[in-house]
Write a structure and sequence with these properties.
By secondary structure, this protein is α+β, with helices and mostly antiparallel strands. It contains 14 helices and 22 strands. It is globular and about 75 Å long.
Amino acid sequence: MFMKRIFIYVSFFLFCVNNFSFSQKNNPAVFEQYIKQAMQLWKTPGLSIVVIKDDNVVYKNAFGVTQLGKPDPFTTSTLSICASTTKAMTAVCMGMLVDEGKVKWTDKVSDVYPALKLYDDYATSEITVKDLFTHNTGLGNADLLWVLGFPLDTIIYRMRFIKPAYSFRSSFIYQNLMYMVAGEVIHKISGKTWDEFIKERLFSPLGMDHTYPVYAQSVNEPSHISPHWMYDDSVVKPIPFIDTKGIDAAGGVWSCANDIAKWVKFILDSASINGKRLLTAGTFEELFKPQSIVTDEEFYPTQQVTKPHWKTYGLGWFQEDYRGKMVQFHTGSLDGAVAIIGLIPDQHFGVYIFANMDHTELRHALMYKAMDLWCFNDNANDWSKDLYKLYVGLKKKSKDRGKEEEAKRVMNTKPSLPLSSYAGEYTNEIFGDAQVVFANDSLRLKFPKENNLRLSHWNYDTFLGKYDYDWNDKTTVRFSLDNEGKVSQFEIDGLVYTKK
């Protein structure tokens, strides 16, 4: 009887081992089929992906095309936008200077880089180098400063006029401006621009020879993605790539699957390359310590499906729990293209995905599917289907809100004044000048950058604005009159521009 039980236990153990081994061996094939089906559901033109497990590239491939309507394939050497996954790279660069004793995470930025001044004098005096990476300084999302194309020094100067969205270190609002400042701090301390520093100290040692700090340095590469946008929830079209200046340290890097695999392996190997550490153990650990509590409003909608118990932010990393493990991850998004990196350090696992369509949350689905397959030997969850349903629902709610606003429109009204009276020069203390131009019996609102708006009458003195970049949301522009009945200002997206 005893021997029979032993035989049963051993047989069951061997069955489990063989089944696990079989599943692991077939993960690439299972994953590849899943990717192809998911791309069709999300209508994503092209993507590349790399999966690292136990210091090995266990999967790397690319699918689709770089641009719809053209035959060029999306390959593992096709350059795409890292966008905000750049932030973790900038944090590593600052960590190198910390290890060299040139700066401390606790150093006051006012001592290191006095050019940074905030609206709140207390925050100006107390903000530390580490605070530049944690999105909790009180600064709201003022990304319009770089979207409008202002030079970096102008952006940093105008940050002093932005009223805090919350008290210093009391909450969390994701924004890019402080990472742009971090790039300038690296420049100030090292004597090298952020572009020079990251290329020399990070990309070159890792052998990332086809990775570039900014788009302009990559133009001689033979394969780049074209960004894409989905119109009317059904039609996907290419859109122009907008080379925004100044955002480099927050989201400027371009890379490819072949190169980004080296970055993922480097991070999973505690910032080591060929046995040599580029960061000390203490500094590396600091990057992944929870630094800020992330509010539900500032986290990803995926939380409605994955249901994490906690959500935090490190130094360039969002953090959550998944199936009992700590996940370090970050997305990257610029007009028409996305990226995502996800790590489960305890499993020595990492995945990175590039895709050439705006906010295709296929990236989240593939990240969780890869985690399931290689970390938990589980193919049960259909993240693509579940997340697609989630995001379709969110779009519908957004459309319904738009219809509710449209229903409030008062019909059969007209502007208080002739259209030509609304023309003129306007200014905003933070976001600079704007011009309303009257021509051909219509109005145009022009900002410093080329993305201007065509204005059509909505009701009373409110106009509907349609951007020249037609993938941007429509908005309203509401003019106000002074006591003399003359146009004094306009308001757009909560910003007030006063007539000069």
